Amino acid sequence: MSPSVRPPALAASLFPASGTDAGGRDRLISALRERVPDAARDAVRQIERDLPVYVRAHDARCARTLAFSIEWAIGHFVDLLGDPDLPSAAVTEHFRRIGAAEARRGRSLEPLQAAFRIGAGVAIRRLTEGAELLDAPVTSATVVRMTQAMLGYLDQLASAAAEGHAGDGARQAGRLQARRRALLDKLIEPDPELAHIRLLAAECDWPVPRTAAAVALSGQPGERAPRPALPPDALVGLHRNEPCLIVPDPDGPGRRRALDTALAGRTAAIGPTMPVTRCALSLRLAHDALALVREGVISAPSPVTAADHIPATLIGQSPDLTALLVDRKLRPLLRSPRVHARDKLAETFLTCIENNFNATEVAARMQVHAQTVRYRLRQLEALFGQDLHDPAQRLEFHLALRAWIGPRH
């Protein structure tokens, strides 16, 4: 709780040192108290004129609270002028709660601080006018000191509001983070119900997108890896055993570039874009791609896109079947005793498949002469015969070559 507010003890200095008796001081304080309701009403009107957006955001109950708070703050200031030892904990706590309420509404402190400044200006004007109109000899220096005291007093109330805002804001942020984690956990369950997703999304102010993509991240919970500077609508699952993200609308304008920038410096794999109810599949494919990155099978710059490495992912899911496929499709090549030549032929075969057997394009990709490509093709034809150009076998050849070449390059 904030400490009690205390303006300077001005009651004795409202008059010159050789001035009037205590009765005169009491009359002055009494006259200032009479001006408190008018000063409060004027302050509320000024806030309504100068901060229409702030006032409009409140309902009738909040408007009454505003008027009550201003009158209490000004009245308590006047009471402190009469009795500097008057307890102030209640008014301080009241403004701390006001700051906390602003945090719960998701509002910044700026409108509240502006309202403090407006209220202080009106209160100073009305109270000093009241002091100057009395018969008592109140000097201009005393008015200045009273003005300074009012500003210091309201600064302390504003500090109490800021304390409440910060404390409740932190709690709100913690609750929001917990709700977003619960939403992420639901999204990556198999076949989650859209209605349940919408319910959890509403609780954490997350607009449900039509599509999303999951991102698998390297690292373990608690690992001191840099936290990605992600868009505010991304759901962050760094609390999970296998850290991940859910990124809404990943194919929107500029979204992929922003994601690549945010993930710079981390090993990550981005799953395919899916309907929001299929994030689990997107995450599974992202994890498969990330595992191949760790194994060195995929050597593309991070973050890798799982959809760009489907053949490598497929062959990585069943090592036994992959070994069988390699042996069955590449047996003529694997029997070659010349290891270096065998590797060059395999690389040429794969590049030919990926470039539709266009010798010129293959030569450019491999940075060799086209005649070298044609010479190797003749060697491959001698090994594989007509199977080499059979479109029905091209996919199996492609997968087998990818599986065999991958770990070597």
UniProtKB/TrEMBL annotation:
Pfam families: HTH_30, PucR-like_N. It comes from the Bacteria. Residues 345-403 form the PucR C-terminal helix-turn-helix domain. Coiled coil: none annotated. Residues 28-188 form the PucR-like N-terminal domain. This is PucR family transcriptional regulator. It comes from Actinomadura yumaensis.
